[in-house]
């Protein structure tokens, strides 16, 4: 559709005296060169006001998300910065969607039509092993990723090259997974959509996440760290570093952060007062017991063979 002169007026924020459907068509024309502006506008409309142009903008947004051209968070220097408008786009999709049947045979589903399951082809170089795995449209899965059944990758997630998502593992909405990561069996990487400015979980390059680990509430695991089986990380969980004599905690504007090369295992700390002390109770806490060395690398070198 060729843009009319009125588009320039709308782009400046002034609504001309025209019918609503014409206004929305012109608005779509004016802002589709700026996908972020389109999503932010349609997200702010009343819930009962969903013009066709909103769905058109969303479908373009979903395709960009699926292809990894946009993402919910990205690293800028030494910080991870959230893109709230991307979460707004995902929430817009839920609002616009209608329940439909999808899938076939024994694997049938009922979900919003705006978020169907992804289908993969050999040209994409993603291995999806038979057995009931699911990846939603709007999730980026890079070439050379391996998906072992049954696992699940939710909308907005970003899974980079060479990563292995093992059986019963979950990659939650908007989670950011780096290159050559191993998410072991039953590992749970939490997701977040609201509030839109909340940081997602970030797992950087070459991290090993052991079986039955849980990483939630925007925790940031830096490159080459190792999480031993059963480790749980949340905003309210302090991380004790017995190598450096430090205690790491989440701040008001900062996530719980696991340092590069740290090897973390489940631990406990005694409660020193009250009835709990008399009962010799302890609380769970993750503990950094060492930093990655040649011995650690030898212990996990099987990863290269799996890939």
Give structural notes.
The protein has helices at residues 6-11, 20-31, 35-44, 52-66, 84-96, 274-278, 294-299, 302-306; strands spanning 73-76, 79-82, 99-104, 107-112, 127-128, 134-135, 140-141, 146-147, 152-153, 158-159, 164-165, 170-171, 176-177, 182-183, 188-189, 202-203, 208-209, 214-215, 220-221, 226-227, 232-233, 239-241, 246-248, 257-258, 262-270, 282-291. The protein folds into two domains: 6-95, Tetrahydrodipicolinate-N-succinyltransferase, N-terminal domain (Tetrahydrodipicolinate-N-succinyltransferase, Chain A, domain 1, Orthogonal Bundle), CATH 1.10.166; 119-306, UDP N-Acetylglucosamine Acyltransferase, domain 1 (3 Solenoid), CATH 2.160.10. By secondary structure, the protein is of the alpha/beta class. The strands form five sheets. It has a ten-stranded mixed β-sheet, with no helix packed on it. A six-stranded parallel β-sheet has the order 6-9-12-15-18-21, with no helix packed on it. It has a six-stranded parallel β-sheet with strand order 7-10-13-16-19-24, with no helix packed on it.
């Amino acid at each position: 559709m060729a843009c009319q002169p009125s588009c320039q007026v709308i782009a400046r924020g002034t609504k001309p005296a025209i019918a609503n459907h014409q206004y929305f068509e012109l608005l779509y024309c004016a802002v589709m060169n700026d996908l972020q502006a389109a999503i932010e506008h349609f997200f702010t409309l009343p819930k009962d006001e969903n013009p066709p142009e909103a769905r058109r903008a969303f479908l373009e947004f979903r395709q960009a998300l699926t292809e990894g051209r946009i993402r919910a968070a990205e690293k800028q220097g030494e910080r991870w910065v959230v893109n709230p408008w991307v979460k707004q786009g995902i929430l817009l999709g839920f609002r616009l969607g209608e329940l439909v049947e999808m899938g076939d045979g024994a694997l049938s589903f009922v979900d919003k039509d705006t978020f169907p399951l992804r289908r993969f082809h050999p040209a994409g170089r993603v291995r999806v092993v038979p057995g009931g795995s699911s990846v939603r449209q709007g999730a980026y899965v890079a070439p050379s990723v391996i998906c072992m059944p049954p696992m699940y990758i939710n909308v907005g997630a970003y899974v980079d090259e060479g990563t292995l998502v093992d059986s019963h593992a979950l990659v939650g909405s908007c989670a950011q997974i780096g290159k050559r990561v191993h998410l072991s069996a039953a590992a749970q990487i939490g997701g977040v959509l609201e509030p839109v400015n909340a940081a997602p979980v970030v797992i950087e390059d070459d991290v090993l996440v052991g079986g039955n680990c849980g990483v939630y509430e925007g925790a940031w695991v830096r490159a080459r760290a190792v999480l031993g089986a059963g480790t749980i990380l949340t905003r309210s969980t302090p991380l004790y570093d017995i190598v450096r004599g430090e205690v790491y905690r989440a701040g008001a504007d900062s996530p719980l952060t696991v340092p590069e090369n740290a090897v973390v295992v489940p631990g406990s700390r005694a409660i020193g007062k009250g009835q709990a002390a008399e009962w010799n109770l302890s609380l769970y806490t993750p503990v950094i017991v060492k930093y990655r060395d040649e011995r650690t690398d030898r212990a996990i070198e099987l990863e290269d063979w799996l890939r």
